[in-house]
Structures are given as C-alpha cells and as structure tokens.
Amino acid sequence: MGENAIDQELHHSNDALEQLATVTRLRCVECASLYPGVSEQPRYRCDCGGVLDVEAEVRYPSPHETVIQNETRDSTTSANDVSFIADTRWQRLFDERASQSLVQPNRGEEQLLDSSGVWRYRELILPVPEYYIVTRPEGNTGLYSVGRENCDKHHNGHSSLGHYAELDTFYLKHEGENPTGSFKDRGMTVGVTMANLLGARAVACASTGNTSASLASYAAQLGLPCIVFLPATNVAAGKLAQSLAYGAITVRIDGDFDDAMRLVEQVCNELGIYLLNSLNPFRIEGQKAIALELLQQLDWEAPDWLILPAGNLGNTSAIGKAFRQALQLGLTHRMPRIASIQAAGANPFYRSYRHGFRHREQVYAQTVATAIKIGDPVSYARARQVIEQTNGVVEEVTDEEILEAKAVIDRAGIGCEPASAATLAGARKLVQKGIIKHNDMVAGILTGNLLKDTHTGIPEFKQDTAIGANIESVRTYLAGTLSF
Ligand code: F0G
C-alpha cells in the first residue's frame, strides 16, 4: 500500500473511532463509574477493578427516526415487569434483513452483513462502518423443536430430549453450528472488528479451547498475529487442533484456565496487545446476538426460561443484556427467567447464588466438561445482575448427569460437546425440582459442536477386527442386533 493510501486509511479509522466514541461509553458494573467507549489505551476494567459494560445509543437506521436506549431506566426490570412499548419497526427491519438469501453470488457488503446472525442486528451490536467489520459470516444456527409436544413428527428421534427433560415445549439452539463450532464466533466477530478499527498490532486470549479456536480464525482472516494461552492439560484435541491450524501462536501454560486468564490480562496490558477474552466488553455485545436470533426464530416470542451452561459467565451476561434490550425496544414483550448451569466440580457461581450472592466464591475447578472448568469467573458481577434482574436461578449438575445428558443429545442425532450437555442436564433437574413446570416454554443453548471433543462421553468402537467384505459376514455381524 502506498503512503497516501495508508494515510487515507488512518484518517478513515480515526473518523470511525471518533464517531464510535460519541455514541458509546463504558460503565463499571460494580461502582457505575463511566469511561469513554474508545480510548488510545484500551480499557478492560474500572479503576476499582470492576468489569465494564458497553452503553451505546441505539439508532433506528433512518435519518429522521432515533431511539435512544436508556440503560438505567430498566435496570430493575424483573421477570414480571412488562414495560412493553408496541413497536414493530425493529422486528420488520430484522425480518427483512433475515429474508435475504445466504447464497447470492457477488453480494455487496450490506448483504453480507444481513446474512450474518450477528451484524443483521448491527444497531444493537456496535455502530461501526461496514468497512471495518470482520465476519465469516456467523450465526444462523439451528433451532430444534425437541419437546414432547412441539416436536415435529418427522423428527421423532428429537422428542427423546423432551421426554428426558419432561418438557412439552422445548427448543434447543445449536451454537455449535457456528463457523468454528461454538458460540464464541458471535463475540469474536465484534471483538476482532474492534481490533481492526483500533489498529491493534496483535490479539490474545486465555481459553479452555473454544475462545482460542474462534480468535485464531478471525485473527487469521484479518491477517493479524494472535497469541492464545491454554491450560497445560484438559484442552480438547479438536479445539487445540483448530488454534494450531489457523496459525495462532499457541502457548500452553503450567496452570489452569484461571491462571491463564490472570496471565493474559497482565500480558496484554504490559505488551500492548489487544485482549479478546469476554473481559473485553465488546465481545459481550456480539454474544447478545444469540438471544436476538433465538427471539427472531420464535417469531419474537420470548420463552419462559432460557437455560445455558456457565463457566466464565460471559454468555449469561450477554444473553441477559440482550433480552433486556429487546424488551426495551419492543422487540419482545417479556423477559425470560435465565437458568445458568454449572458443573458441580466447577461451581463458584452456584455457591455464591446459594447464599444470595452475599460474597463471591472461588473454587479449584475439576470437571469432565473442560470448556467450563473455571473456578474464578471473570464476568461474575455482570452475570449476578442478570440472575437477579430476571428472577433467574443457578443450578449445578454432576459429571455423571452431564455425560448422561450428552448421550441423549448425541443419540437424538443432534450432538454436542460435554459442556453444552449441562443445558439438558440442568433442564431436567430444574423440572424435577418443580422450579420449571412441564408446560413452560423452555429454550436451551447448546454451546459447542460434538466434533470439538471426540473422546469424552463417546462410546468406544468395539469391533476389534475388520469383517469380510461380503453379505454373509454382514449378516453374521448384525445377527442379534437387527432382525430383518
Ligand atoms: N460452553 C462452551 C462450549 C464453552 O466453550 C464455554 C466457555 C462455555 C459453555 C461457558 O461460557 O464462559 O461465557 O460462561 N468457554 C471459554 C473458552 C471459557 O475459553 O472457550 P461462559
């Protein structure tokens, strides 16, 4: 690129940053202090140590109509507080964008954004010029009807999930169908877009595997150096393979995820590398799109319950925030109750919830669900607000319950990685406890793809020797299994 072109690009990016700065700010979740939305030195925490939340003006994309979202007005919104403003403009806008074909040749930039399950909702995600957006595109993940009564008759196998959880109306949204196989892509398209806009020279994260796979892919797409810090053990092989294949500098540290997380924050601050864990509040903005897309798939009707696995708590925070915004904008008319499910061996949030969040618990984490093997979640304060504001609950499930639920999901032909199965195990437990009613409308999130971890909870291949390539050998082999 010639010097003139570089100058011009810098000029554009300064304009875009200035524009973004006028409509966004960061608020501390602990003490409510305010900071600029963008600054020369990226800020991930308040001076008090608290995590930050993006507050942004939401503008309807017509020069004459402006809706300003008032973040504080509804900060006490409870599950029963229906502050519904009849306004179908947003629904119509997003429905029109979603109707764009995904496979049109030579699409313009705008159509590319409309076909992303994140940027389709761009006014609620991040007001940046399209030029800077780094998208695969992501989202557009399947929503499976798996309840005892709402299961499509052509998918009878899926109803085993509804029977297992004892739920009549049950949906599972499979975020493992994202480009790198987990929900992380939704936050990462926004995080890497911010890195692009800020002119970051490198990006980094700590990860139990999925965040790193996602960051490695998006950074590679932009051609940006990427460093990922992983625990020395317990990273599923598929996830490690992704980060290596996408070309990330992959560092295994002598410690667990919590150690890696502390280290990467220090590394990024001291070496001037852009941090892309969900400590970065712009990641949370992208992950909100899971809830927005779910609502759109449900024709903008919010479920009674939204259930998801919980580790570092970024996703609980994002989904709660999205529903709050959707309610404020009249995109939907009620707030679901949010149920965050932790593995019993990695349950600091559950322990804090049990005593009414009187203080923040930490544990040394141990579970087969390695994605959520986290003992000191970064987004604790954000997620606590979500549970309190949605009249939500936090539940724990044992490794045995996770593996049993995973087998049910896998055998239904849907499949997921172990951490994701906490959703089904949690649903079943909350129904058995009478907290969720059999006829409540329930939506659960499956967070990661089956292929991420092809060892944990997968039946062993029992056949020792190959059989002859002839019909008689097959007959003998199948005898007793199938009768034709
Ligand atoms: N499910 C999967 C498959 C995950 O990878 C994670 C987190 C979670 C659930 C929990 O989400 O952290 O937002 O509460 N994985 C992170 C990672 C920690 O590094 O990939 P959370």
Overview of this protein structure:
It contains 16 helices and 13 strands. The N and C termini lie far apart (69 Å). The chain is globular, with a radius of gyration of 23 Å. Helix content is 36%, strand content 13%. Strands 4-5-13-10-11-12 form a six-stranded mixed beta sheet, with helices on both faces. Strands 8-7-6-9 form a four-stranded parallel beta sheet, with helices on both faces. A three-stranded antiparallel beta sheet has the order 2-1-3. The protein is an alpha/beta fold and 484 residues long. It has a domain at 143-180 and 284-452: Rossmann fold (3-Layer(aba) Sandwich). The site of ligand F0G has 23 residues, from helix 6 and helix 11.
Question: Notable features of this structure?
Answer:
484 residues; Rossmann fold; six-stranded mixed beta sheet; 13 strands; globular; binds ligand F0G
Silhouette: globular
Q: What is the mean predicted local confidence, pLDDT?
A: 92
At the first level of CATH, the class of the domain at 143-180 and 284-452 is: Alpha Beta
Q: Which structural class best describes the helix and strand composition?
A: alpha/beta
Secondary structure: number of strands: 13
Strand percentage: 5-15%
User: SSE order, as H and E?
Assistant: HEEEHHEHEHEHEHEHEHHEHEHHEHHEH
Stated plainly, the CATH topology of the domain at 143-180 and 284-452 is called Rossmann fold
Radius of gyration: 23 Å
Catalogue the unreliable spans.
63-86
The main β sheet shows up as: 6 strands, mixed
Helix content: 25-40%
Please list the strands of the largest sheet in the order they lie side by side: 4-5-13-10-11-12
Please report the number of helical segments. Answer: 16
